């Protein structure tokens, strides 16, 4: 009887803990700083450029979404002193985190607040150039290998560095689930708060792994766009019939998630609410999704179930759609199958046309855009969408007003290995 009472209490406790977004920070190919990035996205700016270094000229893909090194915060973060002990992705994560914490006005001082503030932040890939350079150093001599080499390439070190810098002693968590990393990090952080492991979570993902070796590897997988090397701004074209592969991008996006009552007590700004989180595995192929879309359907369906909302409450899907010939069509199929007739009333867009595919930092960056769409009532567009693959209600090339009683969206992220994540995000 006592056990039953405990279970009932825990269930009630969990159901009462709502999770909201109180801070955002972004470093991306279309700008640094959330407001700048959002404005540029709505204006149709594109951050995909030609790769100028000599080593790229012999590769089939010679374009990428690069961050601007002109920003003062980015320049400072990527200083020689910082890069001696940290990977570039970790440096970018620290820039985005600083903005998010200032935005949330969250700088805990007492032990209790620090112990209930955690970090969940990952990356999809380590910096392959660092590995290659260190291997060359080893050929010269053992003493040429940096003592920071291993810490630099550990995928959890961005989360660790954030925790150390700010003294956060709640959950210190990192996932590396390929291109679903950022969404999984947000979803896991949401659950840490929901189940009482933390009151505040700093979460997201970071990626900075563009190098000749990385580009070559993805080219050998036939995953990258190779038809638009002379017109890089046209290369990433989700859901368009001329799409021929994704474009690698780099950057970081960090969210501050917070328990709703906790946010209210301190009069925090609230952007949106995380209603639910769904996960699934395709169990099918290392790079290709299941052709029937069942993996994506499971992920989206479980997010709806966790959010306890009906299908017809969803009026926007921020798609994973990376501009690959196979993946985009399968995601479209999954949306149609899951929502049936209601799919015609759902707006769909992928912002990767503007910034490329940030791999482990894709889901979190696009979650930021979904959150801002919920807040402002504007759906960001899919650039370069000229001839859609089908008749879904795609938001193409220009933003669209989001007019509905309550704005509720799904954010999809799918990764190699068949790992899928979906977030359900709503207007507060």
In the CATH scheme, what's the topology name of the largest domain? Peroxisomal Thiolase, Chain A, domain 1
Query: Can you count the beta strands?
Result: 16
- Gross geometry: globular
- Overall structural class, as computed from helix and strand content, comes to alpha/beta
Low-confidence residue ranges: 6-10
Q: Radius of gyration, Cα only, in angstroms?
A: 21 Å
Number of domains: 2
By CATH, the architecture of the largest domain is named: 3-Layer(aba) Sandwich
The rounded distance between the terminal residues' Cα atoms is 38 Å
Mean pLDDT: 96
Helix content: 25-40%
CATH homologous superfamily assignment of the largest domain: Thiolase/Chalcone synthase
**Sheet with the most strands?**
12 strands, mixed
Tell me the number of helical segments per DSSP (H or I, 4 or more residues long): 16
CATH classification, class level of the largest domain: Alpha Beta
Which percent range describes the beta-strand content?
15-25%
Active site: 179
InterPro entries: 3-oxoacyl-ACP_synth-2, Beta-ketoacyl_synthase, Ketoacyl_synth_AS, Ketoacyl_synth_C, Ketoacyl_synth_N, PKS_Beta-ketoAc_synthase_dom, Thiolase-like
Domain Ketosynthase family 3 (KS3): 16-427
Protein name: 3-oxoacyl-[acyl-carrier-protein] synthase
Describe, in plain words, how this protein is organized in 3D.
The chain is of the alpha/beta class. The chain has 2 domains: 248 residues, 3-Layer(aba) Sandwich (Peroxisomal Thiolase, Chain A, domain 1); 152 residues, Peroxisomal Thiolase, Chain A, domain 1 (3-Layer(aba) Sandwich). The chain contains 16 helices and 16 strands. Strands 1, 2, 5, 6, 7, 8, 9, 10, 11, 13, 15 and 16 form a 12-stranded mixed beta sheet that branches. Strand 15 and strand 16 form a beta hairpin. The chain is globular, with a radius of gyration of 21 Å. The chain starts with a helix and ends with a strand. The relative contact order is 0.17. About 1% of the residues have low confidence.
